[in-house]
Amino acid sequence: MVTNFACLQTTLHNFVLFFTITFLVQFKTHSYLCFIKILKSSVTLFTMETEQKSIRALKCEQSVLSRADGSVMFSQGNTVVMASVYGPLEAKIQKELSDRMYVEVNYKPKTGMPGVAERGKEKLIKTTCNHIILTNLHPRTAVCITIQEMQDGGTLLSASINAVCLALLDSGLPLQCLVAAVTCLVDKKDKIILDPCIRTVKEGYKAMFTFAFDSQKYNLILSHCEGQVPYQLFQEAMELCQKASHIIFDFYRQAVLRKFSKELL
Amino acid sequence: MKETPLSICEKQCVIQAVKEGQRVDGRSLAEQRKTCITFGTEWGCCQVLLGNTRVMAQVSCTIQVPKSSRANEGMLFINVEMSTMAAEHFEAGRLGQQGIEVNRLVERCIKDSRCIDLESLCILVEEQAWEIRVDIHVLNHEGNLIDAATLAALGALCHFRRPDVTLDGREVIVHQLDERDPVPLTILHYPLTLSFALFDQGKIYALDPTNLEERSADGKLVLGLNAYRELCTLQISGDGVFIRKEAVLSCANVAASRAVEMVEMLKKCLAADAAERIKGKYDGLVSSVALEAERITTQSQATAYFKTPVHNLEENADEESLSVPKTKLVKDQGIVTLETKSDVSSSESDIEMEPLPPASVVKKRVYEEIDIGNDSEEEPVMLITKELT
C-alpha cells in the first residue's frame, strides 16, 4: 500500500484533534467481496436491522437551471444541495494555466458570508474535481463550479461532491471517471453509522469520515476525517463507505439514463 | 465572464412582438409567469420560482445591541447574494450594479415600508434586541429578479420563527426550539413588488419581463404594493424614458390586483406548509426536487426559451397530413384510426381550428392508407374511414 500525502493539515481545536488528509494520489484498498444487490429501480438498498447500513434516499433533477451549462438539484435524505457548472470558460489572466484547465469552486452557505469552514469544503471539492475532470484537454480555460447549500440534513460535504459529479455529467465536460462520496460517523458507543442524518450528527460523535471513490476501480480519491478513533475503525468505516458508493454509482447511471431516454418514463 | 451580448435581431424581435401585443413566451402583456413557492425544513427558508427565475431566501436571527438612535427596536438586515450559478456574468461575493439595485429595492419594499414590527424584537432597551437577517440567494437569472427576490424574502419572513426568550430580572434566557414553541415575527402588512418593462418610450408596458425582454426594453417601472392596494415603493429606471402619468396609474391598478392575488397565494402556501408540518415526516425542499419519473429533463430546458403558439402547430400538421377539417383519434389495440366526419359545418371538434374549405387534396386522400413510421412495436396504421363529399 503506497500512500502519498499531498497535503496534511493538523489543527488543534477545542482539545479535539481534527485532521484532514487529502489523498491526491489514489491508493488501493483491500480487495473484498461486494455484497450489493443492484435492484431495478429502488435506490435505498441493503438495509440491515441492527445498524443503519444503508444510505438515505437519493433524488436528483438535472438541468434545473436554464443558464448554467450543467446543473443539478440533488437530495440525499433531507440534505438538499444545488450545483451548477459553467465551462470551459475564458480564464482570467491571473488564473490561467498554460497546460490545463483551472477549476474554480464556490461553496455558498445558506446564511451569512462564506467563512473558513466553507473555504475548507471548497478546497476538498476542488482537489476531487481536479482529479476527475480531464483538465489537460482544455488548457488556458476555466471551469466554474458553484454549490449552493439548500437544506442541511447532515452530510453536506458528501452530498456536495455527489451533486458536483452529477452537474459535471450534465454539463458534458470530459471526465476521467465519476466520483461518489459517502459519509459515516463513529458514535460514542464505537458503532459505525453510515450516512447519518442531522439528528445523529448533533447527538455527538467520536469521529466523522467522508470518503470519495472513483467509478473505475472504486479506489479512494478523497478522505476527510475529524475526531479520534483507532485505525481499525477507520479501515472498517472506509470499507463500508466503499460498498455504499456502489449505490451512488448505480444512481448516477439511472439519472443519466433518465435524462437521455424518453422511453423509460 | 462577460454576459452573452444581445443581438440586434433578438432585440428587434422582442420589440416588434410587444408592439403587436405579443410576447416571446406566449403571454399577454399583463400576464405573469407561473409562480411557485416552496419552503424548507428549517424555519424561514423559502424558494420562489417565477417562470425559470429561481430565488431562495433564508432568514436567521441573532441577539445584538440595538442602535443607540433606535434603542427600543430590533434590526432587519437584507443581503442579496448573486453567484455565478445564476448567470455567467455574476461574480461570487461581489454585487454588481444589478445586484445593488435588487438589494436596495428589496430593502425599500420590505424594510422601509415597515412591514415587520421591529419594536416587538426588542428584548432589553439599549441592551439586547434581535437582529433579523435575510439572505437572498439568486439561483437562476431569467429576468425579473426584483419581484422574485421580494416574494422570497417576504415568504421567508412569514415562515420564520425565532426562539422564545424570557427575562429573569435583567438576565435573558433564550429557549431552544425544542424547549418552547418558537415565535413568529409580527408582520403588519405584506408588501410585494411588481415590475413592468417599458417599451416604445413608455407607451407599452409588459408585466414580469423575462431576461430577454428586460435587456431589450427602454426602461423599467417597479411598483411595491401590499394586499391593501397601498403603494409603498415606486421606481422608474432607464435611459431617458418618459412615461405618462395615466400609464403609471394604470400600471399601479394592474399591479395592485396582482399583488392581492400573490399575497393570497403566499398565505395559501404557508397554510399548506403548516398543515404538512403537523402531519410529521416533513422533508421540505426534497419534495421540490422532481420525482425521477416526473420530468424529462432534456425537454424542460428546450421548451423554456421559445414557445410557439399551440394552435398554429396543430393547423399546420393537419393541413399537411390530412387536410380534413374534422378529425378524431380513436385508439384500438395498437391501431390508431383517424375517423373523419363528412359534415364540415358542425363544430364539435376537440381541437380548435378554422374550418378549411374542402379542397381537391381532400378528395385524393380518401380511402388512402397511410403508414406512419412510428417507433412503437405494433406499427400503427392510419386509416381514413369515411368518404368526404
Instruction: Give the C-alpha Rg of chain A.
Output: 18 Å
> Pairing-aware structural class of the strands and helices of chain A?
alpha+beta
Q: CATH topology of the largest domain in chain B, what is it called?
A: Ribosomal Protein S5, domain 2
Q: Which regions of chain A have little confidence, pLDDT < 50, spanning 5+ residues?
A: 1-51
Uncertain stretches of chain B: 291-389
Query: How would you sum up the major sheet of chain B?
Result: 6 strands, mixed
Assembly state: heterodimer
Just name the CATH architecture of the largest domain in chain B. 2-Layer Sandwich
CATH superfamily of the largest domain in chain B, by name, is GHMP Kinase, N-terminal domain
Number of helices of chain B: 8
Q: What fraction strand of chain A?
A: 25-35%
Report the C-alpha radius of gyration of chain B, rounded.
27 Å
Question: What is the average per-residue confidence, as pLDDT of chain A, rounded to a whole number?
Answer: 81
What's the CATH superfamily of chain A, by name?
GHMP Kinase, N-terminal domain
Q: How many β-strand runs of chain A? A: 11
| Sequence of secondary-structure elements of chain B | HEEEEHEEHEEEEEEHEEHHHEEHEE
The termini of chain B sit apart by 64 Å
Share of helical residues of chain B:
25-40%
